[in-house]
Structure formats: C-alpha cells, structure tokens
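From the methods appendix. Each design record in this collection lists the tokenized structure first, followed by the designed amino acid sequence. Records were kept in a plain field format so they could be parsed without special tools. The example shown here is representative of the layout used throughout.

RECORD:
FOLD TOKENS (328 positions):
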C-alpha cells in the first residue's frame, strides 16, 4: 500500500509540474504542456520572416501589386503550416478599391472552452505598405519593416503560439490587413463584415510598429486610446508587470483613430486599441526607403512578444469580460 501511495504521489507531482511548465520550460510560465508543448519563439525566425516581408522582392507591398500578393501568399502559407485555420471559406477577406483588388488575411484559433470559445479576441496588424518612397542613393522601395511587417509578424507569432499550446479558452482571430495606407480600408471592410455576421467580439489589439525599442526610461510599449478602456491596466495585471503604458502624445497625434483598431471600435463598440513601441523619437525612417529589415531590433521584438504572451493568455482565459470601455 505504501508503495502504491508513493507511486500515486509521484504521478500527481509530475502532472502538476507539467501544468506549470511554460514557453521556456520553466515553472510558472505560460504555455502549459498539459495542452501542448509551447513552440519556441526565436529572433532568428522573426528575422528570417522579416527579411522576406520587408525585402526588395516585395516592392514595398502596396495594395494591388504583385509584391502585396506575394506577402499574402506568404502569410497564408504560414497560417496553414501552423494549423491556424481560415475563418471564412478561405483565408482571404476580399474587397474592391476602385479598380484594385484588396484582401485581408483572416485565420482562427478556436478556444477550448465550450462556452467561452464563442467569444473572440481579435489580434492583427497591417501587412501592406506604401510601395515607393523618396529616392535615397538610388533606392526607391519603401520596404515597411517597422511599418508594419513588425506588427504583422507579432500577430502571426501569437497565432502560432496559441495554435500549438491550445491553452486559449476564447477563440482568437489572427487578422492581417490590406490597404491601411489607403485610409484603413481593409480593416474597415473586415470590421463591417464581422458586424454583419454577428460576431461575438470581446476585444481587439492592433500591433502597429513594434520593431524598435523605446528609451530605457520609458515603458516598453504604449496603447493608443489609453483612457478609453481599462485595457492597458488589465493586460499589465495579467503580465505581472507594466508592459503597456501611457503615451501623452498619442492623443495629440490622434493615434487612436489613425490605425486599424479604430474600425473595430467604431463598428463593434468593443475595447480596440493599437499597441506600439515606435514613439516618433526612436526611429527616423517612417514611410522612408530605409525602413528595412536590418534596422529592426530583434532582441526587442522577441522580448515584446514573450512579455505579451501571459498578458494575452490572461485575457483569453479570464472567466468574465474584465476589459471594458469607460464612459467618455
């Protein structure tokens, strides 16, 4: 009997350790092995994907171009390879802009809770850019590494992580937008379509330019429309540290209404914000031909993604909708 009890206790201990192990294999971190082993997020993989999305071969990813189509195929292949299923019949949410064809890419990671899986958390970033910029030393291609291949890759990495671990109770939409640079046209189309189809959306985060770090004296990232909801403080509670802070100039620059979060706020009336680490002081190449892959800080990007995972996990798995809009 004593031997049987010892074996049982050992099995229980092993199961408890398995539940608590996380992305880096250390106890107490997110990414429970009880659901699935957490995929390792590496700066080498982020760099390799960035070097393709922001390469000259894609010509600056302007809407309606061959380069944008190549980017779309690259993202679709990534989602399929990582078991992130199409949300619609295909990955593409297509629309017309005069004579141009546009298409958002939309994948879904279904939640594991019978009830909460019917609530959706939307994560995204825009994968288009401006195509060409002012010529500098013979270079006319505005590669759009920080803007917004960085945010696109972050959303893709989050999708891969949760599709592998399967720890999310709520469902996740991974949404990559076209035609942001033409006035948020892609996200506006998708938000309106989701509203028409009656989606039960909880929150939306738009990752906008997260390829460069802020000053060491600043919080790692900031959230547009900070005062419109309790989103930032709730994410920080889940993360166990202040990852997302307040940026005073965000309101001066009207950033809340200038990025792809705004159509979701407008159409769905949910907490919808952009998170960024670009604060107009830490990168000189906005809409510039030198916004290239070799200018990105991959240690920073890796750090940002890893710090956001427990914050996102907390939101996905909270028993109630703790993130709410505030009265304006």
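DESIGN:
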């Amino acid at each position: 009997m004593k031997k049987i009890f010892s074996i049982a206790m050992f099995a229980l201990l092993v199961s408890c350790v398995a539940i608590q192990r996380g992305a880096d294999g250390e106890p107490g971190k997110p990414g429970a092995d009880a659901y699935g082993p957490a995929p390792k997020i590496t700066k080498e993989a982020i760099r390799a994907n960035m070097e393709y999305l922001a390469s000259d071969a894609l010509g600056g990813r302007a809407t309606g171009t061959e380069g944008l189509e190549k980017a779309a195929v690259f993202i679709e292949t990534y989602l399929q390879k990582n078991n992130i299923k199409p949300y619609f019949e295909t990955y593409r949410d297509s629309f017309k802009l005069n004579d141009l064809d546009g298409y958002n890419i939309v994948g879904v990671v279904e939640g594991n809770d019978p009830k909460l899986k019917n609530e959706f958390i939307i994560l995204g970033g825009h994968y288009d850019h401006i195509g060409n910029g002012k010529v500098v030393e013979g270079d006319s291609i505005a590669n759009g590494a920080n803007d917004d291949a960085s945010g696109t890759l972050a959303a893709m990495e989050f999708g891969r992580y949760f599709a592998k671990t399967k720890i999310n109770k709520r469902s996740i939409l991974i949404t990559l937008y076209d035609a942001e640079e033409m006035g948020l046209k892609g996200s506006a189309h998708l938000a309106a379509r989701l509203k028409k189809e009656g989606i039960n959306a909880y929150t939306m985060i738009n990752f906008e330019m997260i390829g460069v770090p802020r000053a060491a004296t600043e919080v790692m990232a900031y959230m547009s429309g900070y005062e419109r909801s309790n989103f930032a403080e709730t994410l920080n509670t889940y993360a166990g540290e202040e990852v997302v802070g307040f940026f005073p100039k965000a309101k001066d620059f009207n950033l809340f209404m200038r990025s792809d979060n705004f159509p979701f706020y407008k159409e769905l009336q949910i907490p919808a914000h952009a998170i960024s680490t670009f604060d107009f002081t830490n990168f000189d190449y906005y809409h510039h031909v030198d916004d290239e892959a070799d200018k990105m800080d991959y240690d920073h990007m890796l750090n940002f993604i890893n710090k956001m995972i427990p914050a996102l996990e907390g939101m996905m798995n909270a028993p109630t909708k703790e993130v709410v809009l505030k009265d304006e």
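APPENDIX NOTE: DSSP finds nine helices and eleven strands in the chain.
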